[in-house]
Amino acid sequence: MIDTEVLHRLQATLLERKGAPPDSSYVASLYAKGVDSICKKVIEEAAETLMAAKDGDRLHLVREVADILFHSMVLLTHFDLGIDDVLAELRRREGISGLDEKKSRGS
After folding, report:
1. What pLDDT, on the 0 to 100 scale, is given for residue 1?
2. What is the largest CA-CA distance in the chain?
3. Global pTM?
4. Secondary structure letter of residue 106 according to DSSP
5. How far apart are the C-alpha atoms of 28 and 21, rounded to whole Å?
6. 65 CB contacts (<8 Å, ≥6 apart)?
7. Which site from 5, 42, 85, 101 is most exposed, i.e. has the minimal number of CB atoms within 10 Å?
8. What whole-number distance in Å separates Cα of residue 27 and Cα of residue 22?
9. What secondary structure does DSSP assign to 12-71, as a single string?
10. Residues in CB range of 54: below 8 A, 6 or more apart
11. What separation in angstroms does the CA of 73 have from each of 29, 61, 78, 87?
12. How far apart are CA 103 and CA 67, in angstroms?
């Protein structure tokens, strides 16, 4: 089972830093730079995740997936969304064929 408490604690920290001065933390500086900078970090972490996977380095892969999850949560929080929104979507998809779910979204 996923330890959602760690995700909720992370989300609380991200929310605290959202209104903080940019020089007070890495996350506050990302928020201050705006959505484009946050998106660039998500893309960067996704690329690093792919490289770790292609290298077959399991520990590196886990660390990069943690980075992409972290930066994705920063992005969610930027839009006043959170991990519960993502978990609700995963619950909605549970038990549905991936092919059927994709078709339900349209083009």
Report:
1. 58
2. 46
3. 0.87
4. -
5. 6
6. 49
7. 5
8. 8
9. HHHHHHHTS-GGG-HHHHHHHH-HHHHHHHHHHHHHHHHHHHHHT-HHHHHHHHHHHHHH
10. none
11. 15, 18, 8, 12
12. 30
CA distance 22 to 11: 18
Please give the backbone phi and psi of residue 82, each rounded to the nearest 5 degrees, phi first: -150, -175
Give the span between the Cα atoms of 35 and 75, in whole angstroms.
7
Domains of the chain: 4-104 (1.10.287.1080)
Q: For residue 54, what are the CA distances in angstroms to 33, 62, 75?
A: 31, 13, 26
Length of the chain: 107
